[in-house]
Amino acid sequence: MIDPVRLHEEALDRWVADPPLDVETDGGLASLILAEHYCNWRLWSLENEARRPDRDDAAVAAVKREIDRWNQLRNDLIERIDENVLAELPPADPAEAEQHSETAGQMIDRLSILSLKIRNMRLWAALEGERPSARDWQKKAAQLEEQRDDLARCLRRLWNDCMAGRRYFKVYRQFKTYRDPGLARTPK
């Protein structure tokens, strides 16, 4: 299994120094993980843009539509990650194996978001310098690092259990209605 935490951290180091306009995927697992992480990175900055108090309603609406577009791509990539991971695993016997409620792609998505949060907390700690508030940001970063380590360990265990036939998961389609032109209105 590829180490998504390492991929996420290395990508953030590169992207901060030289922000890409997009991340291409060759369809392999590592490229799918990076493309999905890029979606979260873009979403992070778009959410910050939408929260700016100096933005008028039209600008916020435009950003929210862009958020929807990136969110759809993110969900599509999570599904592709799951398809790719499942293709690498031996078939499980549902009568013998326990079903895992969360997919590998969903866990990798959560690891991506945790990487972004950790980087943000570290930046805040650095900005605060020697102030007592810097210690608060450092504590928050440490808690998030622990959460990320725990989740990465759970992902490795899921992978090992799936390889041994003890667990399995399915691809869960998200069916996001905000991107379906036939569902552009809200049901009454």
What distinguishing features does this structure have?
5 helices; mainly alpha; globular; 67% helix; two-stranded parallel sheet; 188 residues
Helix-strand category = mainly alpha
**Terminal Cα span:** 46 Å
Residue share in β-strands: under 5%
Major sheet: 2 strands, parallel
Task: Lay out the secondary structure.
Blueprint: H1 4-17, H2 29-51, H3 57-88, E1 98-99, H4 104-128, H5 132-163, E2 167-168
Parallel strand pairs: 1-2
Helix pairs in contact: 1-2, 1-4, 2-3, 2-4, 3-4, 4-5
Explain the overall architecture.
- The protein has 188 residues and is an all-alpha fold.
- The protein has one domain (4-177).
- It has helices at 4-17, 29-51, 57-88, 104-128, 132-163; strands at residues 98-99, 167-168.
- A two-stranded parallel ribbon has the order 1-2.
- α1 packs across α4 and α2 (29-51) packs antiparallel against α3 (57-88).
- The mean pLDDT is 93.
